[in-house]
Amino acid sequence: MTASHLADLRAELARRGLAGFLVPRADEHLGEYVPPAAERLAWLTGFTGSAGLAVVLPEQAALFVDGRYVLQAAAQTDAALWQRRHITQEPPQDWLAATAPAGARIGYDPWLIAAESLQRFRDAGLDMVATEPNPIDAVWRDRPGPPLHPAEPHPLAFAGKPGAEKRAEIAAALRGAKEDAAVLTDPASIAWLLNIRGSDVPFTPFALGFAVICADGAVTLFMDPHKLPAPTRAWLGNNVTLADRAALPAAVDGLAGKRVRVDPAHAPVWFAERLRAAAATVSPGMDPCLLPKACKNPVEQEGARAAHRRDAVALCRYLHWFASAPGHATEMSAAARLLEFRNEAADFRGESFPAISAAGEHGAIMHYRVDEATDRPIRADELYLIDSGAQFPDGTTDVTRTLWTGEDPPPAELRDRYTRVLKGHIAIATLVFPQGVAGPHIDAFARHALWQAGLDFDHGTGHGVGSYLSVHEGPASLSRLAKPVPLAPGMILSDEPGYYAPGRYGIRLENLVMVQPANRPEAARPFLCFETLTLAPFDRALIELALLSLDEIAWLDAYHARVVAEIGPFLAPEPRTWLDRACARLSG
Amino acid sequence: MTASHLADLRAELARRGLAGFLVPRADEHLGEYVPPAAERLAWLTGFTGSAGLAVVLPEQAALFVDGRYVLQAAAQTDAALWQRRHITQEPPQDWLAATAPAGARIGYDPWLIAAESLQRFRDAGLDMVATEPNPIDAVWRDRPGPPLHPAEPHPLAFAGKPGAEKRAEIAAALRGAKEDAAVLTDPASIAWLLNIRGSDVPFTPFALGFAVICADGAVTLFMDPHKLPAPTRAWLGNNVTLADRAALPAAVDGLAGKRVRVDPAHAPVWFAERLRAAAATVSPGMDPCLLPKACKNPVEQEGARAAHRRDAVALCRYLHWFASAPGHATEMSAAARLLEFRNEAADFRGESFPAISAAGEHGAIMHYRVDEATDRPIRADELYLIDSGAQFPDGTTDVTRTLWTGEDPPPAELRDRYTRVLKGHIAIATLVFPQGVAGPHIDAFARHALWQAGLDFDHGTGHGVGSYLSVHEGPASLSRLAKPVPLAPGMILSDEPGYYAPGRYGIRLENLVMVQPANRPEAARPFLCFETLTLAPFDRALIELALLSLDEIAWLDAYHARVVAEIGPFLAPEPRTWLDRACARLSG
Questions:
Q1: pTM score of the predicted model
Q2: How confident is the model at residue A70 (pLDDT cuts 50, 70, 90)?
Q3: Hey, what's the torsion of the CAs at B172, B174, B179, B181, to 10 degrees?
Q4: In terms of DSSP bridges, do strands A20-24 and A105-108 run parallel, antiparallel, or are they unpaired?
Q5: Residue A97 touches chain B, beta carbons under 8 Å
């Protein structure tokens, strides 16, 4: 099947005079979840992971994936057709530079790659050729159409600030940067700016589209008119002009002579190339919505607290169910049970990502997704890791707990590892830091207790989280690989250190935290701290008290007391009794 | 005086059709210490600080300096001629974009600015024009000539690795990157690569020059022949071709068709511009010598330990003298006394930077340099900060201690602040971390104890240090503003947190530390740690024991015991007795 797809693509490339072609797992918004029409990588290779890149040459082809997808890529693709490579250890541009003949013309779809990513190929000395329309689309005969779900108003009771006010602020920022306009290619930015939500892709409630905002605050929204029912049009107001997606190229050409901001990391390079061809000046800069969207306003902050309380009730009911019914559940049935509890929460709109329900050795697979083939019973005397999240109109949640399934105390190694991960979690949760500090500067606090023992974990400590938007939201994160964006009040981030023993078990402990001003009145500059949003007990059976400092124990006791006070009243007697026991003081 | 210089420059700019001109404090190697011929900024403005940038327009002129030089710039320059601005808070490119008329042609000397710095002006929409020769040189009538001090061999007993071997390694790296050559513009890189040293600028023992290394290991050294006596020529060998500095442009033109590495952050943009004009391909990349130079080889590591022991003997003699003779010294006389002790150390070759000898309120000026005008007695009951370093052929040192000059115990505030700084110092000194971690990721450990109290300090935690080379050496550092270069075995860095109360006092505690493999045999990846090189007691009068953990006290006791064991035997009875007392156990 994929053999014929690869042959068809090669024939098409030959017709177009190309020696090679890049096939990233991306749509034209460069987003995490893509519609079926953008699943070109899966169509070509069979690989269905959420990140990867294929490079096709006349005689060779390679699929590049990151560490979490090495096994999946091997299982899903044909070794006779595809070399499988590690995308960070053997970067595709290096492979291409070593493999393709000198001067070979390598095609790329300018809608599916950002300027910064493309530059890496050019820096490797490759002759990269923009190729439109995508050659795959010429040979993918049953390619699905784009999603056409309606966009809906996101009411002020949740958004907290009128779209007109947001547009005025972005416009002022553009004028401050001496820019005439900015192109918005991230549907989450558009959803935030215009206070609309949608359902074009799973898990993230936005509508796919593009927009241009001018320095006077006027916005043109490029979106299929079928996705904009009359109430949504009325909600958008007169200062938002609607245009069909097909009108975008001409509109970009109309920016000739203007200075236009384009995000070199997140916008398809098509925009910069088209603007330059139209004699506009490209001003490389961050999507102007990213930072204000990340800093939740007071209404969004209050919404996040409320959404987290409702989610915590569902989660605590689940944890009680899990503690009370061991031996009956499989990974899939447990995840389904959690979804049922969430379905009973007010205003639950769906999961914010596919839940990771992982027993024993599956816990060590960081992005494990259970299916019929991998499902297995959750057994006694092992670790069970449950990482899940929910979308509510007032907020997005993401929480991980790791549980011991046995009656007897867990082995010392597990208690040691769990407690070191917990120490890392607490180190972030209790940190006080001055304005200006960014995630890469503090990620290591989550690792210190592990490092002392020669241990570590292979992912960032945390990511930004949207407000009824993407559970993975920029520009800030707690990862040392990320750009250092200073943390600012209102940002919501995950605090999720872990430890993974491949083939044996995985531990991850995740709460969402929100940046807040710290009360340091005597300080010479503003200091910040984290407010913990997530409310659910940590498994006391796995805590090795001797490894905790008195301050850490005090934090845990206060946190558990808060869980009881805020969630207990919403639980039935049985789970309530369970919660009281789970949250009992650890200190004597 | 400077008024006529400014008028002369403006007339010259008008003759060349330029609306403005940049005057950075830089020589054509973009180094920290520059020869008198490169002091154009001082000639033009009167400002003699080590960093700054002037921008000259027909009607306005501004001098941009960083926080440490705000006061000095105001004192040294004429407010009627110069607007004084903060270089990070009001970046010069923003000022220019707001002040210069649209389309104004702004000149820059391509020898005095790196590509990355220039790009910031272009990104601000400015029309930047390369201007050669420098317009100042046309009107600076008594401009000094270049320094012509001889370059000398740096023997293998100190260098540890033959130049031919280093050249072969760099050549292999160029071939691996598919590059034909690299230009070397940093005299420290050339000194390391060719195992030579010199004395063209103060404090850093290198000879100014340029070099090109080809992918076959052949090097052309562009240096005035007067600086290369016969023994040095013989030492360099046949595979190093000597050429006059004037031959450089033609040699660069001769790289037509080649792929040539140029460091966009550290090389004058002249090289990239000239190479492109010559139809060579510019490959932007880090100076290939930076990383291997930073990772000291075993001979250099042993040299560093030996140099630090000799330096510690001088420093401990000084600390004893200081403790025994209070009330007699001024800042200048104390610094002079320290230099005398160092002069008695074997193979002392000079200071590695101008010593900072700062009493009381002067300690809060991070780069205070005492002179006749600012000198004052060191009084009882205040803090005295001494930050100094030495050049030895086997190693470069840099050490800071902060001392209490009183007989009675210091106030609680000083003990609190000193101890929090000390906790930060120890946190870095004791850190264990996996390979891949870089300075920006761990700098915050040095601040944690301060942050908890709403305190901080306004400089990086530490910088790289050379081996009988610059006391400020890249590419690694312990600063969150720096590029994240992974720490690697053999790197020497300073660990120097501080705390500054403007107008009152300053505290800084600095040892040099060397990255070493950590003994974590069970770890899944290599872990690293720091070996402390500097040996001198911390002032126990300023330590608040109640703020220290048991682990921190144990580290201090072990460190002080090591100081006694390694330095005590080299001291006369009186300082020896003093050292024993200064290093007595803090734990009960």
A1: 0.94
A2: confident
A3: -100
A4: parallel
A5: yes
